[in-house]
Write a structure and sequence with these properties.
The chain is an all-alpha fold and about 170 residues long. It has a domain of about 50 residues. About 40% of the residues lie in helices and about 0% in strands. The longest helix has 19 residues. This is DUF3035 domain-containing protein. Pfam families: DUF3035 (PF11233).
Length: about 170
């Protein structure tokens, strides 16, 4: 009599433990109304000028006197070569890539446009699949049709004769 009761209790505990939600990077909802921490850039401390009578005229869009080269500083902090940046802030080695990617023009509001389109896409996906018996990973569910299979892409590149690095083993 004790064995079936303990087996039922163990199965119940495993079922409850399996229902715990998967949190982290795939949770598309924001859990705070605060600012995006990746948009905040630390700046150098402010300094007082030598003489307040001879301050330079303000130049909209000009360089910051406290932090004149923020992109070069960021490249150096990440281990890159700040001397390789050109006037647009793009490394000279990536100039051809940026020119090709922006050959049809670069919209100034691309971040807000893609953010709006993504929110609309996720809302549409949620509307079509909002009834679920068990919790699901909303990230995988919303973007499952846009997912790229790296092994298929590797095979495709190799079939065209393009050298590719070896892929990690397939997880089963």
């Amino acid at each position: 009599m004790r064995l079936p009761f303990s087996a039922i209790l163990l199965a119940g505990l495993m079922t409850v433990a399996a229902c715990s939600g998967k949190k982290g990077m795939h949770d598309l909802r924001s859990n705070s109304p605060g600012p995006d921490e990746f948009m905040v850039l630390p700046v150098k401390p402010l300094t007082a000028p030598q003489d307040y009578a001879v301050l330079p005229a303000p130049t909209p869009g000009g360089a910051n006197l406290t932090d004149p080269h923020p992109q070069a500083d960021a490249v150096a902090a990440l281990g890159g070569n700040p001397a390789a940046l050109n006037a647009t802030g793009v490394p000279s080695a990536d100039g051809a890539l940026v020119a090709r990617a922006s050959r049809h023009g670069v919209p100034q509001n691309i971040r807000s446009t893609t953010g709006t389109e993504d929110a609309q896409f996720r809302k549409q996906q949620k509307r079509l699949s909002s009834f679920r018996l068990f919790p699901v990973d909303r990230y995988q569910q919303a973007y499952r049709r846009q997912k790229i299979n790296p092994f298929e892409q590797t095979d495709l590149f190799r079939s065209y004769g393009i050298a590719t690095p070896s892929s990690p083993p397939v997880r089963e």
